[in-house]
Amino acid sequence: MSVKIGIISFAHMHAFSYADCLRQIDGVEISSIYNEDEEQGKSLAQRFGASFFSDYNKLLEQKPDGVIICSANADHKKHVIASAESGCKHILCEKPIATTLDDAQAMIDSCSSNGANLGIAFPCRYIPAVMNAKSAIDSNTIGKILAAKTTNHGRMPGGWFINKEKSGGGAVMDHTPHVVDLLRWFMKAEPVEVYAEIDNKFYKMDIDDTGILTIQFDNGVFATLDTSWSRTKSYPTWGDVTLEIVGTDGIISIDSFAQDFDLYSDANMKAEWVYWGDNMDMGLVKDFIASVKGEKPFQIKGEDGLQALKVALGAYESAKAKNPVKI
Known about the structure:
Layout: E1 3-8, H1 14-24, E2 28-34, H2 38-48, E3 51-53, H3 56-61, E4 66-69, H4 76-85, E5 90-94, H5 101-113, E6 117-121, H6 128-138, E7 145-155, H7 164-167, H8 171-187, E8 191-199, E9 210-217, E10 222-231, E11 240-247, E12 250-255, E13 260-265, E14 270-275, H9 280-292, H10 302-321, E15 325-326
Parallel strand pairs: 1-2, 1-4, 2-3, 4-5, 5-6, 7-10
Antiparallel strand pairs: 7-11, 8-9, 8-15, 9-10, 11-12, 13-14
């Protein structure tokens, strides 16, 4: 079965990786590309052998088998709803699902009423260490989970990420959803309360670049998340995702991006971490393509994106009120 995929926007940097992955899968064609920056979009269309459209509705008129949406966070709603209303049955949307709960719910409702499958891009589920941890937790290897200590640090991405109207928030909005999704997936539990301290300590901008969250789950587990845009340009890599899961019978420690070797480059005059081995984006994209082909449902639903967004937005509310907030 040949599969034609349309990509709506390369505003988010993950789009480039997803496109590279699509090109490596037999029987998959990037048939069409829409991008806000037309010059860049035309160049990308040529690179990937796709047709370029300056209007995403025109792209949808081509009836791709599935679409991947990597626009700025605030634009997800219009792109997902337009895709669903066009008759597209398979939609993969970059995280966070949206910038407001109302927008996220509208996206989910539109896909449901139009018979479209809405998936959210949480590629960290496809990291081998994460999948091994999930298997260990499911088999009760560490007993009852009591708590978790997590991090998600990265570089300040600039561009629309630091425009609140487009991003919905800074480091907390950028990094919280990934970790919350993993914790929900691990424990099959829902967050019920969040307390957060949020600030801008690294850059002189009117947007958060650091946050500390404490999240309570309905199974009694509490988790802390240290999230920031604290990695400098000279740091060996863009960031990390780490989790330490504490149980009654043991502890699981996860360093999600530890498949690397150290490179000391005179050309760049700094140390670099060069990654080898597994590609989480490839795992995500292959799973999405399998769902487009009807081989299996895509595992990460719109509701997963909504629950993760609730924690990020609750964190901002908590930091403003200086009190814990019920989710």
